[in-house]
TrEMBL record:
<keyword id="KW-0902">Two-component regulatory system</keyword>
<feature type="domain" description="Histidine kinase">
    <location>
        <begin position="222"/>
        <end position="414"/>
    </location>
</feature>
<dbReference type="InterPro" id="IPR036890">
    <property type="entry name" value="HATPase_C_sf"/>
</dbReference>
<dbReference type="GO" id="GO:0016301">
    <property type="term" value="F:kinase activity"/>
</dbReference>
<keyword id="KW-0808">Transferase</keyword>
<dbReference type="InterPro" id="IPR005467">
    <property type="entry name" value="His_kinase_dom"/>
</dbReference>
<dbReference type="InterPro" id="IPR003660">
    <property type="entry name" value="HAMP_dom"/>
</dbReference>
<dbReference type="InterPro" id="IPR036097">
    <property type="entry name" value="HisK_dim/P_sf"/>
</dbReference>
<dbReference type="Pfam" id="PF02518">
    <property type="entry name" value="HATPase_c"/>
</dbReference>
<dbReference type="Pfam" id="PF00672">
    <property type="entry name" value="HAMP"/>
</dbReference>
<keyword id="KW-0812">Transmembrane</keyword>
<feature type="transmembrane region" description="Helical">
    <location>
        <begin position="131"/>
        <end position="151"/>
    </location>
</feature>
<dbReference type="InterPro" id="IPR050428">
    <property type="entry name" value="TCS_sensor_his_kinase"/>
</dbReference>
<keyword id="KW-0418">Kinase</keyword>
<keyword id="KW-0472">Membrane</keyword>
<protein>
    <recommendedName>
        <fullName>histidine kinase</fullName>
        <ecNumber>2.7.13.3</ecNumber>
    </recommendedName>
</protein>
<keyword id="KW-0597">Phosphoprotein</keyword>
Amino acid sequence: MRVTSSLRWKIALTTTAVCCAVAAVLGILVHNVVARQIVGEVRKDADRELDHALGHYQYGTTHGDVNSSLNPPGLPPPLRALVARGLTGSMVGERAGKPVMWAAGPADDQALAVWIPYESTRTRLRDIDTAILASSLLAAGVVALAGLFLANRISRRLARTAAVARRISAGDLDARVGLPEEGQDPRRPRYRDEVRDVAQALDSMAASLQKRLEAEKRFTADVAHELRTPLTGSLAAAALLPEGRPKEMINDRLKALHLLTEDLLEISRLDSGVEQADLARVELGRAVRRAVTATGLSAEVEVVRDAVVLTDRRRLDRILTNLLVNADKHGRPPIEVTVEGPVVAVRDHGPGYPSQLIEQGPQRFRTGDPGRGRGHGLGLTIVAGQAAVLDITLTFANAPDGGAVTTLRLPVGRLTDGS
């Protein structure tokens, strides 16, 4: 959500910045046009009054309604220099500390100047600038809110797409993005955009992945079922062979193939999601000791603190057996099993788990241990599947001083009535 929030604010701030830039440019243009128009009107009035004053000066009369004078002390030097070249002009200046519009022209080698008040014009320009600034700020605020609203809609859809992608990564292949948003009529045709294209691509990918996994599950179950009957017959036929090394080799291979078939059947049942645990209150320390003894493997069991947990004893035995067999096959002794409350840790002192298994979890037919050349990756896959049925938190890691460590955290609670 942090990423989408950043995207939301980036879009809103970018939209606001663009709006402010456009408003500033338009404000400057409007200010220049209006100022030129208003100042031009005042300048025309000054020039008209100067023409009247020059006309009266030529006839030797005065125009009492006009503020005029020959060589007034406040006449701006640029305007005085312009008149000295025989030209007329006007400009804004000051007289007696007040802003005025000066207009001056030559009169018998002197400068005849008129001036009209400019304070009201300057105040008018300030009022116009204030109105432009207020309008720009209002427009920027409205655009910022609109941009934030639109960005929030986009970020919400992106966050929803990301959440669905995380659910798919976690194994929920039924998750889809292509659902009507809250308050939207599902019958209404929806517009197409890039975010929707990404959502549709994610849904298409999830559907394709789901189909492929379902096909793989069906193939695994079908193969296991098809192999089970001929394998049973082959085992029975092998028992009729005369004793000797050939019979032992055939029986060993057939038993290995039979165990592989049973593992595939168990995985297919776990994949189908129909497996139900028969929960009961179990003393964990005693159950672990019994499971370790039943394997016949050399392993040390230490009960630091016992606990009563809710679990299916048969499935728990299956998990522990597979972990011990895996440690014996791929690790090195000593194999240590520690019980501390509802947590069981199984550790060996071998090369440890491959990094891919730690990051992605166990995967069938992938051991990550090609150098050893043994195993199909089914044992740990069954462990993960049975742990999911029992709601056991399963963690694969490597010890700092070497060796693979598998941690099981079992649920603790009371059984409900009738369970």
